[in-house]
Specification:
The chain is of the alpha/beta class and 346 residues long. 47% of the residues lie in helices and 12% in strands. The strands form three sheets. A six-stranded parallel β-sheet has the order 5-6-7-8-9-10, sandwiched between helices.
């Protein structure tokens, strides 16, 4: 992300009129290697391939804000690997983590990992330390770091079903586990920020918060997510949850989030009404049915419809209702960027 792009993102988060609605997309290892025709294994294990790939994507779409930007993202395995989960690598898709067997009993007494020593975390930190100078030389900066949220990390350790069953049947043990995963999420973000020169933002991705009832959200999700966001006062804070459950929507601003990336299954005007006027919304073109599988004409039309439904450029980043799906063609990303070209600049 260039300094100009970062300032544009901050302006949107503050609710200022950017002149033209920016296009912002979450991209990571499920999309970049396949789009460039690379082996995912090469992309994740060869720093030179990783750097060239990220620079090439940015050069092809200079008008798009890619979040978090230059993300060293081992699928969803970084945090689980630090706890000791077995990980399988593949050449054509991101690696996968295997949950522990035995439910909550399998993680009884588990301690927060050390980001400087455990799992893939020190490897990722070393990528950032070694490659940031070359990112800077190319005219960009790594301004934002990312982590899966406390509930999502817990679900990776147990499996989604086991985590949700444990939440209902063993709330005390679930709280103890979430206390540990929350500590890891916070220290992992802090370690990434410390490894880099100018981090000013965080991205927290937690879809499991959308699997809960309102009562359970307030007990098992909100306090832990808020603790993570509260650890970074003054940072630009982005929350991603693209499940089709609006349970968290009225509370996203109270978490301390500035930008919210949400599902395409909820209309953007409805989400605005539920989240309030002060939150920057990031959405919400369907990432699979339209952005990945539609035609460029369909993508442009849906992008324009999304902007029109929101009704104002203030507080809006045009995006997918979630991350960019594997197989999304470059022509469709270019079409999404073109969908805002006709907007008048005051």
């Amino acid at each position: 992300m260039t300094p100009r792009q970062w300032e544009l993102l901050r302006r949107c988060a503050r609710g200022e009129d950017p002149g033209t609605t920016p296009v912002a997309l979450i991209v990571d290892s499920p999309w970049i290697p396949g789009y460039l025709g690379l082996s995912t294994l090469d992309y994740l294990t060869d720093p030179e391939v990783w750097l060239r790939s990220n620079l090439e994507v940015i050069q092809r779409f200079p008008e798009v804000l890619f979040l978090p930007g230059f993300w060293v993202e081992f699928g969803m395995t970084a945090e689980p690997s630090a706890f000791g989960c077995r990980v399988s690598f593949h050449s054509d898709r991101p690696p996968s983590a295997h949950p522990f067997r035995g439910g909550l009993g399998a993680v009884e007494g588990i301690e927060p990992p050390n980001p400087a020593a455990d799992g893939f975390l020190p490897v990722i930190l070393n990528y950032y330390r070694r490659l940031e100078p070359r990112v800077t030389e190319a005219g960009h900066a790594i301004k934002m770091v990312a982590a899966r949220g406390p509930l999502t990390v817990a679900s990776h350790l147990l499996g989604v079903t086991e985590f949700l069953v444990g939440l209902r049947l063993n709330p005390g043990d679930t709280h103890r586990l979430l206390r540990v995963t929350t500590t890891l999420v916070r220290t992992w973000l802090e370690a990434q920020a410390a490894a880099l020169e100018g981090v000013e933002g965080i991205l927290v991705l937690d879809d499991l918060a959308g699997f809960l009832s309102p009562k359970d959200y307030l007990e098992f999700a909100h306090p832990y997510l808020k603790e993570v966001f509260d650890a970074f006062p003054g940072a630009l804070r982005v929350f991603h949850n693209d499940t089709d459950n609006p349970v968290s929507y009225p509370y996203v601003r109270a978490l301390g989030a500035d930008i919210f990336n949400f599902t395409h299954l909820r209309s953007i005007d409805t989400v605005r009404a539920m989240t309030g006027p002060d939150l920057c919304l990031m959405g919400n073109v369907p990432p699979l049915e339209v952005l990945a599988e539609g035609t460029p004409v369909e993508v442009t039309a849906r992008g324009r419809a999304c902007v029109a439904a929101h009704g104002t450029r203030k507080g809006l980043l045009l995006s997918a209702g979630g991350g960019v799906s594997p197989g999304t063609p470059g022509d469709n990303i270019a079409a999404l960027a073109r969908s805002v070209e006709s907007e008048a600049t005051p």
